[in-house]
Amino acid sequence: MSVKGMKPTRMDKISKVIVKYRNWILLIATLLLIPSAIGYFNTRINYDILSYLPADKISMKAQDVLNDDFNLGGTAMVVLNDTPDQEVQALKEQIDAIPGVDKTLWRTDLADLDVPTEALPSLLRDTLYQDGSTMIIVTFTNPSGSDETMDAVNAIEALCDDNAHIAGFSAITADTRTVVNQETPIYTIVAVLLCLIVLSLGLKSWLAPFIFLLGMIYPIVYNAGSNIIFGEISYLTNALSMILLLAVSMDYSIFLLHRYQEEKSKSKTKEEAMAKAIHATWVSITSSSITTIAGFMALVVMQLTLGRDIGLVMAKGVLLAVMSTILILPSLLMFFDPWIEKWQHPVLIRPLRKTAVFVSNHYKAFCLALALLIVPAWFAQNNVNQYYDLTASLPADLSSTIGTNDLKEKFDMNTSHFLMVNKDIPAAKKEQMLKELENTDGVTSVLSYHSIVGPAIPLDMEPEAVRDVLQAGNRELILVNTDYRAATDDMTKQLSNLYEIVHRYDENGLIAGEGALDEDLIQTTKIDFQMVNTVSIALIFIIIAITFKSLILPVILVLCIELAIFVNMGIPYFTGSTLPFIAGVVIGTIQLGACIDYAILMTTRYKEELEQGLKPKDAIRMAITMTSPSIITSGLSFFAACSGVSLVAKMDMIKSLCILLGRGALISVVVILTILPSMLLMFNGLISKTTKGWPKSNLDQSRDKENKETNKEENKNETDSVSAVEQAKITTIKYEPVHRQNENNSFSSEMISGFMKHFDKKEYSDAGKTAQGDLIYE
Hints:
This protein is α+β, with helices and mostly antiparallel strands.
């Protein structure tokens, strides 16, 4: 910001241009919503999480062969209960006519209905009939996650009555799309309403929260529309991006409003005030948003490219939110300014004055709490049960869930493996291989062309339908059904045994299917968890080190946020909850990137108070008191948006992620308001020695001596009722958003003195009605 006598900076000029042409900018920004909306509706949503596995994984290579050679990349089973064979055949014919269906396989492809069921080969009979139920095997022309296959699955579900359910991975993917598409608008409404409530508690204007949300429409729509550059995004990214962007970026709007209100009292015109506010906001939120963007960008290093999907979309969204705050929000705030000032109410989120005194008096106890908690919290986090079975994330009343349960209970088919071997293996060895497969623990049935087409098959049965499904080129397909669920220890051992058997007869043999994909998913995410955490911590560490020119401050700040992450992720260990696999990889990174700003704000404020000549203990009290409203409002907004969605989400994966994100925000707030100040106070001397430019005033005073001299008076201040007359100093707090840390000590002694003129000798309740709303006592 330019100062009298100094040459205006480039940002000064840009700020004035933004204010001068604000209406044109708003018009252009509004028109840009149109192509953004077009881009959004033309961005494909990917509902197949397993498709994000690295292409070089053996299971993905096997899946490609299954899809390209056998055209079985998408399969499903229709389970019919207590249904006559004639009705089953009619349904089969209807399914064959559905676009996207390649073929169906049932008993009529091998024998006419005139042949009694009892006369069928036992292997075929046991595969297709169990406990009064029968099964139609359906193959699709495209992979499970394709739009054509999901549309075909929905068409099959429309044909099924209460006695018929469709099962298999294709059905699970299609039902995932249905549920997410139904619920995503509800997520938006809930997140917006709860954010409005929290913002109303932290702001004194009734209208400002609505203006903020109106301003957030622009970056949210821009972000959604610009995703078209990626071709497609995952359903998780699509469902969570709006919520996360709303939660992590709302602070930018809060800061601009309050800076604008502050500058109006010191400027001749509203235009001048907004230009100054834009400059201050730009300096503050650009440097602050770097940490958030760094946290999201750490996800890009994941082998599971779902992380890259989430990371790039969210990093882009934060950048767009920063630009929208600088370019678009000023026009909205200036237009609605008269009503923002007119419709006001008392601020309900107040400074934590007593908390500040308590923390400063017991800082050693809070440091000890960190030391005692961090190891067991880390252990708990690393031993939380996780699930990789995507069926477990779906509601129990969906057709795919019911059908999958029927497969398990009636056909002993929890998981199906697709083994692809050389069809020229000698018959004797092939027979021996099939017996070994059948004798593998957990295997309930083995179906192959060799086992079906044998001497016992009647002459009137046509094997061509079976050959079309089970043979392709020089490969033969063997379907192995197992009683084990995918992504379990039993499944891991079983897959190892199956690979060992297959490779003894064909060293190039492959195994495809959900079980093999989930096994690679488990191994991939284990590596990703360590890699992403290391990269995110390293990036944040470097940013903080550069920002503060310090060696020890990055350790303290990251350690505090990591404690919050460990506690958040460790709670399910003690409650016995099972988390979705993706939670362990992305939650810690998002929580670190989103909540490190709270720590930076607290640290910067503490430094500023030391520069004003305060002793460390007094400085930390002032820092806690003056930053607590902004940290609480930001944390509560994050909590409200995410936790609200968790209450209405039916998809367990989305529900669990939102619970963790919301709870993580609250835990981070508590840690930053208690443990971080204690650490800063405890290690102030070390910080001074390892931080360039750290204030050195009053550092020579012994902390123990200071505690002894002031403890009696402080305890009295904690318990006595407080009045304006009884306190030595009274200071008003202007609500200060989370991203205020780079404002170069703007809350100086001159400003404090300026606020003093607003006060008379009334009691606390009356003094609270001053221009800036809140007051504290030093």
